[in-house]
Amino acid sequence: MALQLYNSLTRRKEEFRPLEEGRVGIYVCGPTVYGHAHLGHAKSYVSFDVLVRYLRYLGYRVTYVQNITDVGHLTDDADEGEDKIAKAAAKERVHPMALAELYTRSFFEDMDRLCCVRPDISPRASGHVIEQIELVRTLVEKGYAYEVNGSVYFDVARFKAYGKLSGRNIEEMVAGARIEPSPEKRNPVDFALWKRAEPNHIMQWPSPWGMGYPGWHLECSVMAMKYLGRTIDIHGGGLENQFPHHECEIAQSEAANDAPFVRFWLHNNMVTVDGQKMGKSLNNFITLKQASAGKHERLTKAYEPLAIRQLILQSHYRSPLDFSDAALHAADSGYQRIAEAVTGLRRQLKVASEGPTDQDVAGQLDALKAKFEEAMNDDLNTSVALSVLFDLVRLTNTLAGSATRETLGAVDDLFTRLGGDVLGIVKSEYAEAAGGNDEAVGKLVGILIEQRAAARKNKDFAAADAARKRLDEAGIVLEDTPQGTQWRWK
RNA sequence: GGCGGCGUAGCCAAGUGGCCUAAGGCGACGGUUUGCAAAACCGUUAUUCCCCGGUUCGAAUCCGGGCGCCGCCUCCA
Asked: What does the pLDDT read at residue A13?
């Protein structure tokens, strides 16, 4: 079975075929950089990271574009609100671009830790103002937009397909509107393409309509078409952006180009924390930096970024995901189980003797690979794909000590391809004695292990157990294995 | 008020008409192993999928009603 993806536009799973044979262009709505990335960002970007990785695994040449919003995203209704970045910058008394730069770096750092592959292109909205003005000009010329007092609005009534993605119609929206219609708009559902800037507004550019700045929806249309063409294969983003953001993108792009904007719309579901929507006012807003430092009152410990990735991959990208300390803890244990199996496998691989690959194992590996691909082909069922990794863990842990280098190598290869290349949960290298790559500590623990070994040899188990207990109190766990005593941080 | 989604074991979660007397992970319990542990392995842990009706030879899966939870409709990944 070929790859099937759920297309929000048609509301069903469809076989994915790119416009151009062998190549895929994918655009994912990136962050507005006015704060550190949080668990919601993690779910969205890990989900699309796996999509990109899997497409590459399937042999596609993928161009992955993910924007950085550093201007134009308003805090409020698309007409009256302040620019989020300008607001945060004023509060911290720094230049808006300095603030954007700070959080852009923070974002990349957090995504790297989650093992998300970097996008091929990370375009900034502020670097594409010229193109945005061009698009607005085109829309005005074609009669889809109108200017009022230096601001330009999209005339939604002119675009008949408006609402096709989110399943809404204009009349209902007008009737149910909770916001005060702007006096400048012809229609309450019209949205801003270009906003007039007051003189004290820092981020502003000259345009045919005077000094101003671009509306938020515009940047994605412009950058997607600039780097991927007028019709792109896949556009991804969070479900909450389906309306109005993506609906507006479609309207602008298709009105300007007279061509379909996106073939496959993919939306990931939302994150809750302890069953509630994550929000700053609810005190359940958790950033990735807080999670990996364990510094949040909802968390009992520091969690490795990959434990967060594991939790995300355990559920489906279109299902909501509830973060809780218990859920993270469980995911962390599962993640460690995989890591330990791979570490042990590689340790064994170094000393194994050569010989033919065990055909029974090879057969099992083929079956697991097929099961994995079948799951991923079904709209990226990472939950089942991850279960294949656990099957592989069990297989690894039951391999006889006599397994050949070739057999072990074949298992390691599958771990690397499925767990590493596609899911991004298996590392290419693990620090020796997990987390203990501090040489001095390693040597000291080594000395204590030797002394304990001597005690054990003399059947002085009281001394041996005391040594183990004291190390345990210091946060170091000793494990006696057939390959000798191993240690790791608790 | 309008639109949409969800409700599966102690917890997380896949499955969406027969392969389900329901994956996988965490946890718990029993066993093997170990000087004792740890880890690992083996086994047990939902005859049942929120409730009530209906359709069907057959439903966790489809339909109707109810209850509960969540999201979008204003910025949010």
From this structure: 86
